[in-house]
Amino acid sequence: MKAVVIGAGISGVTTAYFLSQNNIDVTLIESRRYPAMATSYANGGQLSASNAEAWNSWHNVKTGLKSFFSNSHSSVIMSPFPSISKLMWLFKFIQNIKNSETITYDICKMAVNSIKLYDNIAKKESLDFDKLDKGIIHLYMDKKHTENAENINLIYKKAGLERFRITHEELYSLEPSLKHKKLDSIFFTPTDKTGDIHKFCRDLTNKMVKKNKVKLLNYNVENLKEFSEQFDLTVVCAGVYSPFLAKTVGDSLNIYPVKGYSITINNPGNNTPHVSLLDDFKKIVTSRLGNDRLRVAGFAEFNGYNLDIIQSRIRPLIKWCTEMFPKINTNDIKPWAGLRPMTPNMLPIVKKSNNNPKVWYNTGHGHLGWTLSAYTAREIAIKILKD
Ligand SMILES: Cc1cc2nc3c(=O)[nH]c(=O)nc-3n(C[C@H](O)[C@H](O)[C@H](O)COP(=O)(O)OP(=O)(O)OC[C@H]3O[C@@H](n4cnc5c(N)ncnc54)[C@H](O)[C@@H]3O)c2cc1C
Known about the structure:
Elements: E1 2-6, H1 10-21, E2 25-30, E3 46-47, H2 58-66, E4 76-78, H3 84-95, H4 100-124, E5 136-140, H5 143-158, E6 164-166, H6 168-174, E7 185-189, E8 193-194, H7 197-210, E9 214-218, E10 233-236, H8 242-247, E11 256-266, E12 276-279, E13 284-289, E14 293-302, H9 311-324, E15 333-342, E16 349-352, E17 359-363, H10 369-386
Parallel strand pairs: 1-2, 1-10, 2-9, 4-14, 5-12, 10-17
Antiparallel strand pairs: 3-8, 5-7, 6-7, 11-14, 11-15, 12-13, 13-14, 16-17
The structure holds flavin-adenine dinucleotide (FAD).
């Protein structure tokens, strides 16, 4: 069987991997010069089942609406310019608020399995991507958020994830750079991990190409029908651009580009975190990538396909770092912005086309694409082989 996979971000690279493991002849097509130069370039770095909580909530809707008037302190920013695609997406997002517990459960379960798959792939292929197995610490600043965290923990437990509350003393011993910080509560998930998504994609692609398991082609696909003669199947993994390709075979994918920002701090110094953090109030995550890089990411901005790196989003990320870790060295910072391919129910689209039996989709991984991709890639390979 000959397959073409469109897009060499994390969803496409892992799809190519699982298809090629099942003796399918794979061509991986990427419009950019190298793999993982779009959203899978400089994300938060967390492989985090503990961040599976659905975004579908009235609290997030209200935060987004408030940002029309002032967005300087908001973690969710909604541009006031309406578009049909944004309104349709928001309508479905709100409809799914009632399903948020089920969504959280489903995402958490997928994430737990996916992280195990990453361990296997990393070991089998000897991948170098600054993987760190130190768990993730969640910081909660007030009673309301702590109560919510306790409730979410019950769902996580059912889905097979152990996240537990720790004391301030335990926090200081796990992460000495947070010594003296007073929080309302702290939760720890030892099985969560971190790693550099870009390095992972590049290393795995290079290894698959070197072993002749996958061919890599630099080409911009305009129509999915281009491949119907040469290939038995096409898998679309084009992130936020997937809906445009789907349209060429009459499919409609409800994916909105939700922009996020990151900074990579080179040589941040010793009094900075080595264990990955999630500040639940500010929605900021950190990951240590190797000894000398600290990645800090946040923000959910609804502003179409705009990829400008806006300084008024970068500054709060730097401010957060200097407030949390006053001795941090911020001399050398690389800012970045990327678009999360978000579905309104947070769940990735892993299915066959409604209109063309040769076309499949593995896309729409949203805020957890790094975490979930290994799982959905294996799922799509299983579905294709069963078909
Ligand atoms: C600020 C930020 C922080 C994040 N933090 C985390 C985190 O900590 N943990 C986590 O799990 N997730 C995180 N995410 C989400 C995660 O990064 C994304 O879900 C994931 O990278 C999406 O991968 P993808 O393969 O679907 O898309 P992409 O990485 O965008 O890959 C799609 C590829 O398809 C190519 N392409 C598109 N159209 C065509 C075409 N027509 N022809 C050929 N090629 C094409 C593109 O060039 C691109 O390389 C974060 C995202 C952001 C923005």
